[in-house]
Design goal:
It holds the Pfam family Response_reg. This is Two-component system, chemotaxis family, response regulator CheY. One of its GO terms (biological process) is phosphorelay signal transduction system. Keywords: Phosphoprotein. There is one protein chain. This protein has a single domain, classed as Rossmann fold. The protein is 41% helix and 19% strand. By secondary structure, the protein is of the alpha/beta class. α2 packs parallel to α3. It has a 5-stranded parallel beta sheet with strand order 2-1-3-4-5, with helices on both faces. The chain is globular. The protein has 5 helices and 5 strands; from the N terminus they run βαβαβαβαβα.
């Protein structure tokens, strides 16, 4: 059975590029346009990994990560931050919130897929 990955990004083009790469590698993909939209879509189904932007309207990525870590079903779901943000203090904030990896845009799809394969829950 295919593993499910959620992509959270306010950019439709980023969701599309990441989605194409993931689907091409055999993953199921759930897309969300911001942190709140993503939380609304986490309804108890198994999600093996979440890829989230940091800077988004409505609910930013760091707040989203903190919220996910409060949900019993998703407490241990690994999260990759995919962002233009390369600031060390933001990275530390993301890690403190529970993010497992930090991929800076622009990214190479194979670089992202490598991180996904390492972190995807069995």
């Amino acid at each position: 059975m295919a593993k499910t990955i959620m992509i959270v990004d306010d950019s439709a083009s980023i969701r599309m590029v990441v989605g194409i790469a993931l689907r091409g590698a055999g993953y199921e993909v759930i897309e969300a346009k911001d942190g709140k939209d993503a939380l609304d879509k986490l309804t108890g189904q198994k999600v093996h990994l979440i890829i989230s932007d940091v800077n988004m309207p409505v609910m930013d990525g760091i707040t989203f990560v903190k919220s996910v870590k409060q949900l019993a079903n998703y407490r241990f779901t690994p999260i990759i931050m995919l962002t233009t943000e390369s600031d060390e203090s933001k990275k530390r904030e993301g890690q403190a919130a529970g993010a497992k990896a930090w991929v800076v845009k622009p990214f190479k799809p194979e670089q992202m897929l490598g991180a996904v394969q390492k972190l995807c829950l069995p």
